[in-house]
Specification:
Length: 407
């Protein structure tokens, strides 16, 4: 390791201490050691919001956010085509309609004009996605939301410590969702958290994630009803629909330790990204995801596009691996072209009575509806940035340079 190199452990040392606190306290129905409360309060504070609500995963956070916003049968929610299936899946979980729109040709984040042209009287919310760590253009999105009385839910699963015009990602929309899944910058294996500042939205989201308990609150860590209430035989517990989507406290203990070193984790991702950027900047046939002025990319990965038609994507990957590279990913399919949507269209067509909430409401999820991303997606390479050793990041960048030179 060079004298200027940096290496950090994969798991924060504090995680072992916090997990031991939870295990030593034991598991109880209505009591805890308070780790979840610390995580919820600390996370919300770090990302500029008032409330944090821990969840079992980062898809559940989107679902409860939509439920808190009142999204349901017949409502439409606008989402980008460049995203993980979890984003529109949360809409489907609410029996609402995902309206999947195209992306900007340079940033690959949700296109403002595409949003504008798809707003209808049935539109209830927008879920902009900070894809690969880059925030979308939020100012016009929030303006459109205000003009049309829409809720904006930030999907920041891939964006920890990204910024938009001086504001940290997570502090801009009405609610913001983060994932703790194992590939994410902050992870506890799986889990997620929803943050917001509005009292009513926060309470509705808490109830949606805790079986609709009547007497739940938004106080940090308050995700069960007290024994004094629950032990009464005449106590009516539930006044709204909700699911059991709480984050286990053992997982919260790990997430809390990772939150305490979030800046260091983000710096390591940025270091890796910059190592790749220096190489790609020297190549005239690989185009990086554009970072507009005022945007600070959190670099969940380093995304770029091969522009030469004579280079086969798979051959480029195999050459990189043969030279010692750690591999890279292609982009997920444009989400509207995932087979689940064609299957859903077919099912509704064949049996509309079974899907009255989708019949005559569901868009045709088919090729040609998002032409920008459909043309770009096959050429995308997503280079890993989750290196915990700067020497290893530099090594991977050097291998990328050798790979480029072969073509």
């Amino acid at each position: 390791m060079s004298s200027s190199a940096k290496q950090i452990p994969r798991v924060a040392p504090k995680a072992y201490e916090y997990v031991k606190e939870v295990l030593d306290f034991g598991f109880h129905n209505a009591h805890s050691v308070g780790i979840t409360a610390k995580l919820e309060a600390g996370f919300a504070r770090h990302f500029g919001q008032k409330y944090g609500i821990g969840h079992c995963n980062g898809t559940a956070t989107l679902q409860t956010a939509l439920m808190a916003a009142g999204v349901g049968v017949g409502d439409e929610v606008i989402v980008p085509t460049f995203t993980v299936f979890s984003t529109p899946a949360a809409v489907l979980q609410c029996n609402a309609v995902p309206v999947i729109v195209d992306v900007d040709p340079e940033t690959w984040t949700i296109d403002i004009e595409a949003i504008r042209s798809h707003i209808s009287p049935n539109t209830k919310a927008i879920i902009p996605v900070s894809i690969c760590g880059l925030t979308p253009d939020y100012d016009p999105i929030m303006e459109l939301a205000e003009e049309n009385d829409l809720i904006v839910i930030e999907d920041n699963a891939q964006c920890y410590s990204g910024y938009y015009k001086g504001r940290i990602a997570g502090s801009i929309g009405h609610m913001a969702s983060f994932s703790f899944q194992s590939s994410k910058t902050l992870t506890c294996g799986d889990g997620g958290i929803l943050i917001c500042t509005d009292d009513k939205l926060a309470l509705a989201a808490r109830k949606a994630s805790t079986i609709g308990f009547i007497d739940i609150s938004v106080k940090p860590g308050d995700n069960v009803v007290s024994e004094q209430l629950r032990c009464q035989p005449d106590y009516q517990r539930h006044d709204s629909i909700g699911w059991n989507q709480r984050l286990p406290e053992v997982a919260a203990a790990v997430a809390l330790a990772e939150l305490e070193r979030i800046d260091e984790l983000a710096e390591m991702r940025t270091y890796s990204a910059n190592a790749f950027k220096r190489v790609i900047d020297e190549c005239n046939w690989i185009q990086s995801q554009k970072n507009p002025e005022g945007h600070v990319n959190a670099y969940w990965n380093y995304a770029a596009m091969i522009t030469r038609d004579d280079i086969d994507w798979s051959e480029f990957l195999s050459t990189f691996i043969k030279l010692g590279g750690d591999g890279f990913y292609g982009s997920y399919q444009p989400v509207h072209l995932e087979p689940v949507f064609a299957n859903l269209n077919k099912a509704v067509d064949e049996n509309p009575k079974r899907y009255p909430h989708f019949a005559d409401r569901l868009p045709r999820y088919e090729k040609g509806s998002c032409p920008v991303w459909e043309s770009i997606q096959p050429r995308i390479i997503m280079l890993k940035t989750n290196y915990f050793d700067t020497d290893e990041a530099d090594k991977q960048a050097e291998i990328l340079a050798k790979t480029i030179s072969r073509f």
